[in-house]
Amino acid sequence: MISYLQAETISKRIGDIILFENISLNIDKDDKVALIAPNGAGKSTLLNILVGKDSQDSGLITYKSGIRIGYLEQLPLLNAKNSIIEEVLNSPTEIANTIKNYLKNLSSGDELQTKTSLSEMDRLQAWDYESRIEQTLSKLGLEDIEAKIETLSGGQLKRVALAKVLIGEPDMLILDEPTNHLDLDMIEWLEDYLIRSKATLLMVTHDRYFLDRICNHILELDDNKIYKFQGNYSIYLEKREERIYNQNAEAEKARNLMRTELEWMLRMPKARTHKSKFRTEQFYELKDRAGFQKSDETVRFNVQATRMGKKILEIKNISKSYGENPVIKSFSYDFAPGEKIGIVGKNGTGKTTFLNLITGNLQTDTGFAESGTTIKFGYYRQELPQFSENEKVIDVAREIAEVVSLSNGTTVGVSHFLNYFLFPPKRQQTHFYKLSGGERRRLYLATVLMQNPNFLILDEPTNDLDIITLNVLEDYLKNFSGCLLVVSHDRYFMDKIVDHVFVFKGDGCVKDFPGNYTQFRNKEQEDEENSKKKLISEKPTKEKKTKSSPTNKLGFNEKFEYQNLEAEIAVLHKEKEKLEIFLSSGSSNSAELVEKSARLGELIELIDEKELRWLELDERNE
Predict the structure, then answer these.
(1) Which residues, listed in sequence order, are joined to residue 61 by a DSSP beta bridge?
(2) What CA–CA distance (Å, rounded) separates 484 from 477?
(3) pLDDT by residue (tens digit) across 487-513?
(4) Domain map of the chain by residue range?
(5) Which one of 74, 89, 198, 391 is least enclosed by Cβ atoms within 10 Å?
(6) To the nearest whole number, what is the mean pLDDT of the chain?
(7) Model confidence pLDDT, tens digit, residues 100-158
């Protein structure tokens, strides 16, 4: 195998905290690797070290000579003055500069310079590259390519950075939480892209379906060490349990042996022979092995939900528009006790607006949302509250409450409660600005739950939380006695928790689907397939021979034709797309307009003819 990346005996300490010590890893060409670790263990720091954005205390990092690296940071830094297209094309490559010049000359109306740019585009075969840019930006919901970076939201910035990395088609991709701020359609597209991509991959992600379907190796950063597992996430879970079991068994064996050796150590006189010194050294090695005891340190969400009355939340004909754009139109729903509902839909379809409407943080245009007198909302938002950067963890929590009621009816002090969220007393004295992204999210979640809500509203709760925390949170929510409304792009999370989903379709339309996300997606795909079949059946077709006829099988020439038709149709579609872009650019003169319009008409007819022929041959192909 060709090694793309080798890291040998890497160590990193921040203050008095050791993130990792003398860890080594190797990534070969074609590997698709996920890095898993608890929040605060140093995942992002390790990625930054590997790409040279941070420095290790010791150790050596080596890349294969000449390979191109694409890195998506968790918090990407982009040029605020650039437009989206300028930022995506902000690359020193010849092809990127050529496209930039072409777009600049096209918008300026300089015919001579545009003609020169067209020749350069043809010479470098840059049309496919440009088409890839447009397709990638479209798939990531970045339609307004002239929008300035400084006007974008945090989620849009992450998507611009992702597009910039993918479009460059590097030999190795290093991605830190690539699914954050993507809607479910985008995640499925990215998943398919990475499966088909020839790039070697190293990524950090909490999306377990994503891990399962893409990765063939898992790296676990645990106890300042790296463990490597071959296989996807499901296989990793099995092998990890086996590793921990074997380590604990070995430690138990060492403890039993150590009792005997300890008696010898206590009896042994001070003047020791060479042989006794060797046995003494072995005793201390045995003591280290005997001290191993692995049991996952996990968050405990054992807070009590406030008692709930008969009336929960009634939504009656609520509507909301921004200008001419409807977000929600005449939506009604009456919540029942214990309901767990997921919310799905593309970015910008009004999911967060809906949450703000029902909690009274935003005024409806028409209708109302009325909650019962016993309802106590716990609203976990996408954006973190404005915690003071210099405030300590314990002080952040004390601003909410001094004591917390637990599910068993007892109460505990806030410091004791923070232990359940993996903030031991020493860590509680840490200033907020020193916390990792995941630790900040965990602290925010603690401040929401410690208020003992009976109606939880979670807007993208899985962002930046580690997998261990997510597993515990899922178990808590499954047994949560109150109501739950959750917006999440994490398909595994949604499938495990929700009973049904509100589907935000856009243009103010909201539908209630009776099932989890996967069931909804399967139904949606089934409906799409049925619609396609219906459209095809309604097209006028040439007289077909019956498939059962033995003479109806494809001949040699027809098989060759069938195999090539799909590629021909794809080429024709590309030419059609380029013509449509050209005609809509407004830069063509009247003669060109007539010529290109005529060609577009020919292409449409030709595509229809070839698609019908492909369908005919496909039905006879066995």
Answers:
(1) 7
(2) 8
(3) 999 999 999 999 999 999 999 999 999
(4) 15-68+170-252, 79-169, 313-524, 550-620
(5) 198
(6) 83
(7) 787 777 777 777 787 788 888 788 777 777 778 888 898 898 988 889 999 988 888 99
Length of the chain: 622
Rg (CA), the chain: 30
- The answer to whether 208 and 202 have CB atoms below 8 angstroms apart is no
The closest alpha carbon to 268, from 281, 249, 252, belongs to: 281
Instruction: Name 341's Cβ contacts closer than 8 Å, sequence gap at least 6.
Output: 484, 485, 486, 498, 499, 500, 501, 502
Longest dimension (CA), the chain: 106
Cα(336)–Cα(483) distance, rounded to whole angstroms? 8
CATH number corresponding to 313-524: 3.40.50.300
Return d(Cα 546, Cα 551) in angstroms, integer: 9
Phi–psi pair at 174, nearest 5 degrees: -120, 110
Q: Which of 256, 247, 198 is nearest to 70 (CA)?
A: 198
Q: Which CATH class is domain 15-68+170-252?
A: alpha beta
Do the Cβ atoms of 178 and 166 come closer than 8 Å?
A: no
Which of 163-172, 473-482, 502-511 has the largest mean confidence?
502-511
What pTM did the predictor assign?
A: 0.72
CA atoms within 13 A on the CB side of 132: 18
Q: Helix 111-123 and helix 94-108: axis angle, to 10°? A: 150
SS (H, E, C) 531-560: HHHHHHHHCCCCCCCCCCCHHHCCCHHHHH
Report the pLDDT averaged over residues 532-544.
62
Of 239, 221, 508, 207, the closest CA to residue 350 belongs to 508
DSSP string, 321-339: EETTEEEEEEEEEEPPTT-
Residue 333: is its pLDDT beyond 90? yes
Comparing CA positions, the residue from 416, 463, 467, 425 lying closest to residue 444 is 463
Please tell me the distance from the alpha carbon of residue 95 to that of residue 608, in angstroms, as a whole number. Answer: 34
- With vertex at residue 45, the alpha carbon angle to CA 43 and CA 50, rounded to the nearest 5 degrees, is 95
Q: Lowest-confidence range among 103-107, 140-144, 454-458, 611-615?
A: 103-107
10 with 49: CB under 8 angstroms? yes
Q: Nearest 10 degrees: CA dihedral of 278, 281, 282, 284? A: 160
Structural tokens at position 428 = 């509680």
- Where does residue 127 rank: exposed (0-12), middle (13-18), buried (19+ CB within 10 A)? middle
Kind and range of the H or E run holding 614:
helix 590-620
Q: How far apart are CA 88 and CA 160, in angstroms?
A: 7
Distance separating alpha carbons of residues 452 and 455, to the nearest angstrom: 9
In the DSSP assignment, the letter for residue 507 is T
Concatenated DSSP letters for 174-202? EEESTTTT--HHHHHHHHHHHHH--SEEE
One-character DSSP codes across 419-462: HHTT--HHHHTSBGGGS-HHHHHHHHHHHHHTT--SEEEEESTT
